[in-house]
């Protein structure tokens, strides 16, 4: 299995893959929250909160520099904020899809959050400037997974932590039942609500199961984290392995 990066329908290289993902998320931004909560039966809220709790020790430090990258409409950012003390340094919330980021900014009103329109593969941040990077259900959409991890590693301080919350494909009978829902029912509902992605002819929720199927399984993803210089690499499955949290750290000096 290749671990190169996202491959939306019609993409022929990394640049066209990034453009297709950008176009797709801008197009579904108005209904993104509603569909995610309905299609996941609101379990996605539990996943965000559980992932945020994993990093509560870092988040409790008022001066910690924290980035939610590929933040979408900001639900992961809001979960992280629950563990920030009053007067703490503002969180950074970054995404390259303006439609998603605009909706996230509305949620952040009144909270200590700085919005940043930026590509995860080219973060406008100094080397070794962050204590924590978290991304929820956005990493698998990167055009190059290895390049993304290298960029995260560059931006983290020595000892800084990384959290990647992503979907996976569970095994057994549950996995078979979930596959039917994930590959047939979910795309059909998404297509009815959102329609096709402009210029593509396919629905955005057709891409979702394909992107999960193409994403490296946990053992391969852990190998990729190690090969890009991360240590303390681990994976914690959520909800029988439907999703899971990858954790890692940049080595100390």
Describe, in short, the structure shown.
The chain has 253 residues and is of the alpha/beta class. The chain has one domain: Vaccinia Virus protein VP39 (Rossmann fold, 3-Layer(aba) Sandwich).
Q: What would you note in describing this structure?
A:
The chain is α/β, with parallel strands linked by helices and 253 residues long. The protein has one domain (14-250): Vaccinia Virus protein VP39 (Rossmann fold, 3-Layer(aba) Sandwich). It has helices at residues 14-28, 32-39, 43-54, 56-59, 75-81, 98-108, 145-155, 172-194, 204-214, 218-227, and strands spanning 66-69, 91-95, 113-117, 130-136, 156-167, 230-238, 243-250. Helix 3 crosses helix 5 (75-81) and helix 8 runs antiparallel to helix 9 (204-214). 42% of the residues are buried. The mean pLDDT is 87.
Oligomeric organization of the protein chains: single chain
Give the total of beta strands.
Answer: 7
Q: What amount of the residues lies in strands?
A: 15-25%
Question: N- to C-terminal separation?
Answer: 33 Å
Helix content estimate: 40-55%
> Largest beta sheet: what is the strand line-up?
3-2-1-4-5-7-6
CATH topology group: Rossmann fold
Global Rg? 17 Å
Question: What's the CATH class, please?
Answer: Alpha Beta
The topology string of helices and strands comes to HHHHEHEHEEHEHHHEE
Structural class: alpha/beta
Give the name of the CATH superfamily: Vaccinia Virus protein VP39
């Amino acid at each position: 299995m290749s671990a190169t990066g996202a491959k939306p329908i019609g993409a022929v290289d990394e640049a066209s893959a990034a453009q297709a993902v950008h176009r797709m998320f801008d197009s579904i931004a108005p209904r993104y929250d509603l569909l995610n909560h309905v299609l996941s039966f609101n379990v996605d809220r539990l996943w965000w909160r559980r992932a945020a709790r994993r990093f509560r020790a870092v988040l409790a430090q008022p001066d910690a520099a924290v980035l939610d990258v590929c933040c979408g409409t900001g639900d992961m950012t809001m979960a992280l904020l629950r563990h920030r003390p009053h007067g703490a340094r503002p969180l950074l919330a970054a995404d390259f899809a303006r439609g998603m980021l605009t909706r996230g900014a509305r949620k952040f009103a009144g909270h200590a959050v700085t919005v940043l329109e930026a590509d995860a593969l080219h973060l406008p941040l100094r080397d070794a400037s962050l204590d924590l990077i978290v991304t929820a259900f956005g990493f698998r959409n990167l055009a190059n997974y290895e390049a993304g991890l290298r960029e995260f590693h560059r931006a983290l301080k020595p000892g800084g932590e990384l959290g990647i919350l992503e979907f996976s494909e569970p095994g057994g009978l549950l996995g078979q039942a979930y596959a039917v829902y994930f590959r047939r029912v979910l795309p059909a509902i998404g297509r009815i609500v959102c329609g096709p992605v402009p210029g593509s002819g396919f629905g955005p929720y057709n891409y979702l199961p394909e992107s999960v199927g193409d994403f490296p399984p946990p053992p391969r993803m852990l190998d990729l984290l190690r090969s890009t210089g991360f240590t303390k690499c681990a994976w914690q499955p959520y909800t029988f392995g439907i999703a899971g949290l990858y954790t890692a750290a940049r080595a100390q000096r």
